[in-house]
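Researcher: I'd like a candidate sequence for this fold, 71 residues long. If you have to choose between options at a position, lean toward the conservative one.
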């Protein structure tokens, strides 16, 4: 159970990094991960962040969404 929890926490951090990259308007091509699970997590976060970026939020994100990403 601990391995699953640790893996989940790592993927959440990677997803959060993707959100930050998206909020900054970076390209999805800049994903730093090669392993499929990490790349998927980063891209999921990137899509969310980039959606906010293109909607005009430019770095502002709903606190509930942010708490969901971090936890």
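Model: Candidate sequence:
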């Amino acid at each position: 159970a601990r391995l699953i929890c640790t893996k989940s926490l790592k993927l959440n951090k990677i997803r959060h990094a993707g959100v930050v990259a998206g909020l900054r308007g970076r390209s999805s091509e800049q994903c730093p991960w090669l392993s499929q699970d990490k790349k998927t997590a980063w891209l999921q976060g990137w899509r969310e962040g980039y959606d906010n970026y293109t909607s005009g939020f430019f770095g502002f994100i709903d606190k509930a969404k942010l708490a969901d990403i971090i936890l």
